[in-house]
Amino acid sequence: MFSLLSSHKLILSVGTGGVGKTTVSASLAVAAAMAGKKVLVVTIDPSKRLKTALGLDDLGTDITKVNLEAKGELYASLLDPKKIFDSFIKKNAKNPELCEKIFANKLYQNISSLLAGSQEFTSLEFVLEAYESNRFDLIILDTPPSQHAIDFLRAPQRFYHLFDDKVVSWFQTNGDIGFLAKIVHSGTKKATAVLERLVGKGFLTEIYEFFSLVGSLAGTIQRRSIEAQNLLSSPEAAFCLVSSFDPIKTVEAKELYRLLKREGYSLRAVVMNRAFPFIENTDSMPKDFLAVYNDLAERFKEQKLLQRSMLEEIAGDVAYLSIPEQDFEISSLEALKTLSQSIFI
Amino acid sequence: MSQPSLFFITGKGGVGKSTTAALIAKHHANLGKRVLLVEIGDSSYYSMLFKKPIAFDPVEVSSNLFVSHWQWFRCLKEYVTHVIKIETVTNLFFENAVMKSIIQVAPGLPEIALLGKFTSSIRHVGPSMPYDIVVMDAHSTGHALSMLRAPKGLFETIGFGPLGDHSKGIHDTMMDSELVKYITVCLPEELPVTETVEFTETLKTEFKIESEVWLNKVLPIQADAETIDQWQETAATDDVKKAANYIQGQVQKQKTSFEILEKTDRLHKIIYYRSLDGEAINWLSNLEKESKDV
């Protein structure tokens, strides 16, 4: 596991929701900091667990130094997709007037962080900026929770396709409103009539304006998405796949494993979380203890099979780690430290 | 008081929302009701669970129990067809590249499309859904809140026209406790429980929704802390000690969880953990049999 931390500048924790990615990301970050690195851990999951564990409060969305006693330094950030998108607009808008117009648009205000792929785009943008700043030895990204972990890799493309050339040029009006008058193609005219009937003319204008304004940034969105993609595919970036001992999550994890390998990403570690502590030899146990243990072992018996099947799947160059269910809640820095020390030696 | 016919199941990722939703659906199917179990994510979990391809059109997985995977785009198309009534025009609308982009951008549209279909029978809008009970394996808590806010958001933004009116109808239905029952699933650990309590409070204050809390993946350990202490102290080998520590940890976590939930009066059910082996339908029945009402 240690080579994972020392030979890369970016580690992405991937996996479906609810497997413990956030805890694993935080432990990796603490381990790296303890080993002397200057680390940034980035999370988008607004879970209170990590916030509490890292001592971050609700106000902190910037990069904050964590109060950890270590050879190195630990920094953390809670991503706010809306704030990141706002600063992206500020940074890349052609002029301040355009920027103001965008911020004033009702659609932008409501949905910039809800657009398909926007969360992923903004987290990658944030990571890309942190990487380009050269401030850190290692950046660990806890990817957004999604039902299908592959969404994270596909999302930026989906996002910039929203502002596809054909679509954007359709909305460019060079300053005047007269969208409806400019519709020449009858198909689009009919479609627009349907939309207008559903949402009303006023709202329709907001929609068109949104596309026209934000669309002017489409080129930059595309360029940054490609740059982020290049970083993810480079040897500087490594993927750590997290799963739990659940048959369906394991199936999803294996699919993701194969996909990452196929597309040439550096998948360096597979972590299975919350392992039951099976006992090899139960001879010494008192009867009542044995009874409780046997009942539990029976409930968790599938874990052995799942671990075996996962080990069969992964190649030799991928580290496998099974993290036991912890006796305590991972709700403090001390707890994270204990966890990382016992695992990442 | 009439029995609610819609069930909305939520909870944080990893708690077993999908399993619990399926369990509830199976329970009602066993009682002779015609049940539709619905999942709404991008990909189908129930296809993997029931080992059958699950898509938009309902698939019968066991007697009286039907399962569907609703993708919002398809729900929206169905709705627009219903409003516009001319299929060729609807197709034109959805196939237009510009419209596709616009649809992606409309606030809350995916959520409204899904909730619209979920409440369609009650509101008499759209194609009929011949079921006594519809159980939705809904989004996890954060996204669920956006989902519940979406209809009101849309009719406040748009205000008139079919979409505006229907959004109001959807909102009113979702807020009616005689029509929709809300269940928040949680793990028996302090932090998830605390967050669940906060979430159910938000549902109450923002929407006047009373949600039940169900605890999932509970372990039935019949031993007290002192006895387990003994096991820890007299453990002969390392792995025996680890197991004793584990059991003690679980007992403590569960005890704290119950204490927190007891204060809220919202805990209604406990589901004991058992890993999935064999057929999902049998596994669900076993989980249901072993579960405990609180």
Blueprint (SSEs and pairs):
The complex is a heterodimer of chains A (345) and B (294).
Chain A: H1 2-6, E1 10-14, H2 21-34, E2 38-43, H3 48-53, E3 64-65, E4 73-78, H4 81-92, H5 96-104, H6 106-111, H7 118-133, E5 138-142, H8 151-162, H9 165-171, H10 179-182, H11 186-199, H12 201-215, H13 218-233, E6 237-244, H14 247-262, E7 267-275, H15 287-299, H16 302-313, E8 319-324, H17 333-343
Parallel strand pairs in A: 1-5, 1-6, 2-4, 2-5, 6-7, 7-8
Antiparallel strand pairs in A: 3-4
Helix pairs in contact in A: 2-17, 4-7, 7-8, 7-13, 8-13, 9-12, 11-12
Chain B: E1 6-11, H1 17-30, E2 35-39, H2 46-50, E3 59-62, E4 65-69, H3 72-84, H4 87-95, H5 97-105, H6 109-118, H7 120-123, E5 133-137, H8 141-157, H9 161-174, E6 180-186, H10 190-207, E7 211-218, H11 225-233, H12 238-264, E8 267-272, H13 280-290, E9 292-293
Parallel strand pairs in B: 1-5, 1-6, 2-4, 2-5, 6-7, 7-8
Antiparallel strand pairs in B: 3-4, 8-9
Helix pairs in contact in B: 1-13, 3-4, 3-6, 6-8, 8-9, 10-12, 11-12
Task: Give an overview of the whole structure.
The complex is a heterodimer of chains A (345) and B (294). Chain A is α/β, with parallel strands linked by helices and 345 residues long. Helix content of chain A is 54%, strand content 14%. Chain A has two domains: 2-82 and 117-160 and 234-343, Rossmann fold (3-Layer(aba) Sandwich); 97-115 and 164-220, no CATH class. Chain A has helices at 2-6, 21-34, 48-53, 81-92, 96-104, 106-111, 118-133, 151-162, 165-171, 179-182, 186-199, 201-215, 218-233, 247-262, 287-299, 302-313, 333-343, and strands at residues 10-14, 38-43, 64-65, 73-78, 138-142, 237-244, 267-275, 319-324. An eight-stranded mixed β-sheet of chain A has the order 3-4-2-5-1-6-7-8, with helices on both faces. Chain B has one domain (6-219, 262-293): 3-Layer(aba) Sandwich (Rossmann fold). In chain B, strands 3-4-2-5-1-6-7-8-9 form a nine-stranded mixed β-sheet, with helices on both faces. In chain B, strand 6 (180-186), helix 10 and strand 7 (211-218) form a beta-alpha-beta unit. In chain B, helix 6 crosses helix 8 (141-157) and helix 10 (190-207) packs parallel to helix 12. The model of chain B has no long low-confidence stretch (mean pLDDT 90). The chains are: A alpha/beta (345), B alpha/beta (294). Chains A and B meet through helix 3, helix 6, helix 9, helix 11 and helix 12 of A and helix 3, helix 4, helix 5, helix 8 and helix 9 of B.
